[in-house]
Amino acid sequence: MAKESTCVSKLQIERGKFKPVLPDILKKDASFIKPVKRKVTNYTVGQDNLREIFKNTYGLPEITFKKGVNKNIAKKSIKVAVVLSGGQAPGGHNVIAGLFDGLKKTNEKNILLGYLGGPSGILENRYKLISEKMLCNYRNTGGFDFIQSGRTKIETPEQLCLIRDNLTASKVDALVIVGGDDSNTNAAMIAEYMKKENLNKCIVGVPKTIDGDLKNKYIETSFGFDTATKIYSELVGNICRDVNSSQKYWHFVRLMGRSASHITLEVGFKTQPNVVLIGEEILANKMTLAEVVENIVSVIVKRAQSGKNFGVILVPEGLIEFIYEMKKLISNLNDVLVENSEIVAKFHSVEEKKEFIYTKLSKEDSDLMKSLPVGIASQFMLDRDPHGNVRLSLIETEKLLVEMIQKRLLELKRVNKYKGKFLAITHFFGYEGRCGIPSNFDANYTYALGYNAAMLVLNGFTGYLSSVRNLVKPPKYWECGGIPLTMMMNIEKRHGKDKPVIRKALVDLNGKPFKKFVKNRNKWAISENYVFPGPLQYFGPPELTDMITKTLQFEHSK
Q1: What pLDDT, in 10s, does the model give residues 414-435?
Q2: Is there a catalytic annotation at residue 211?
Q3: CA dist list (Å): 323 to 141, 286, 320, 340
């Protein structure tokens, strides 16, 4: 493992003094926090298949914590392990801190282990004993460097058997998995396996992803989204101010979010740029790539007529997959690459791979891929992600748009329908937001999620996701409990096979945030209503330090 850093900034020292505010319900030890089983959760997608796969953990009730004497808390000490899984998100260390404090407040003899390097650490039985002395330097810090993370997928019988053996050998009573939709799918599979094996091992998940696509009415937001969007908004706001100063460039900013446009929408609200592309809307309208380009061109032409040859455009990372014919191409391409993986692996160059793949695709898909700029088409052939899909983060969609827009504007110039100048600059903001020092909201939220996870574990609620809600209120009023992981699942195709996975929450086109955006975008397009949020604030008046996302505000507005 990497050597722990001893360099600490003055900001980190001061930030370490921040004391997260716990919801009132969690301020006592577990003996005085009573779980209430509420209605059995409803399942609407792939119900029969899910019932068959999760025979032992399907149809569990929602759990809510209330004040009251809890006589079911075991008096003996327990050993709990935590693992950070998937991409980093601000606040992961506070989840561990909340989990640690929740366990220790109930019984000082409770033990917390940290598996190292993500799920692979469970498989290899690599862990460290977590102590207050070790943890104190990581409270309220960004990153996952305390125990690191990884993307190992847990799905084979052999892996599940190995996890069973390692948890048993280490005498681990409970495992807390901190991750996104795929990581918590792992948690659901492990929980089901332990139940099937009649092992008393409690498995609990914690919702994490800066993309914001792990949410529902029980999970109002995933942690890290607040911090990351504030970081991106500072950068985009700086670009807006720059473009309004020089007034000669069009900036195309691609933002992280492979499967949903939540980040792009939130940054749009915070900065009010000229164009904000929402992938879900483009998919719903079955827009072609040419139509997307034409919509952007119309704004560029309209602004040029007023002498404004500048602007800012936000592009979601997963845009390509939302465009109707591109989504179809990518789906078919993924299937072809899986079916011919051994043959493709033997080719030494990208061009050889492309020529072979063209023969396996339909003529329509092949022609579409050939029509793309050479560099972009080649990016489709890069290594797959862990699920066997195209790595959309490596496809420079913003550059594809610029190239097509330039071509279209030249056509309009030839017929005297465009007289402006088009100079473009491209950006991709992704990793810049994943490890930031968590905002007050995320510091409080993640600490509560971890502490709440400890309550779920101490009560033996396996197969649950830690749920902290009512987030538009101050933290003391937040509501806590757990929801069954299986409630959030459906069946999707992975590596060419149907798999149970937690379904991603996309931007709701009928939701209040999107409707608010639609109401304002035409005004943003033609004017310079740019907002400059500035850097994320940790100290100062609450109206600056404790701001929640615009998305949460709009979702809960009346």
Answers
A1: 999 999 999 999 999 999 999 9
A2: yes
A3: 38, 7, 5, 25
